[in-house]
Amino acid sequence: MEKIGTGQKTFDYSPVRGIWTRLEGPEDVLDLMDKGLDNVIAVIRDAGATFLSPIFDELRGVICTEGTIRSHIGIVSREFQIPGIIAAELFYDSENGTEIILDGTGPEGLIYLAD
C-alpha cells in the first residue's frame, strides 16, 4: 500500500476502505445524496463545515485538510464514530472515485491508496 497522507486522527479506529470523494459545498452534498453514499470518504477543506450534516452519519470516513481534532468536523467525527483525519497533509490529491484506506491504529492518522 502506498501512503498518500497523514494527519490527526479523530479517535482510535481500525482501518476502513472507502471511495475518495472531494466535497466543496452544499451542492456537492445534494448531488451525492442523489447518486448514493456507498463507501464515501468525504475529503473537505473547511474544518468548520456544516454542509456535511445531512450525510455525516452515512459516511465511511472524512478527511479534512484544515483545522484540529477540536474543530467541528473532529468533534462530529468522534460523536458519530466516523473515522476521520484532520489537518491532513496530502502527498498528492487523488481523483474522485479512487479507493483509499484510513488507518487510525497508530499515533497519527494515515491515508493509503488501496491495492
Give a concise summary.
The chain is α/β, with parallel strands linked by helices and about 120 residues long. It has helices spanning about 25-35, 70-80, and strands spanning about 1-10, 15-20, 40-45, 60-65, 85-90, 100-105, 110-115.
Q: Helices and strands, in N-to-C order? A: EEHEEHEEE
Helix vs. strand class: alpha/beta
Question: What gross morphology would you assign?
Answer: globular
The CA-CA distance between the termini, in Å, is 6 Å
> DSSP strand (E) fraction?
35-45%
- Poorly predicted runs: none
Structural features, described:
- With 115 residues, the chain is of the alpha/beta class.
- The chain has a single domain, classed as Phosphohistidine domain (Glucose Oxidase, domain 1).
- The protein is 17% helix and 39% strand.
- The chain contains two helices and seven strands.
- It has helices at 26-35, 72-80; strands at 2-9, 13-22, 40-44, 61-64, 84-90, 99-104, 109-113.
- Strands 1-5-4-3-2-6-7 form a seven-stranded mixed β-barrel.
- The longest helix is centred in the first third of the chain and has 10 residues, at 26-35.
- The model has no long low-confidence stretch (mean pLDDT 94).
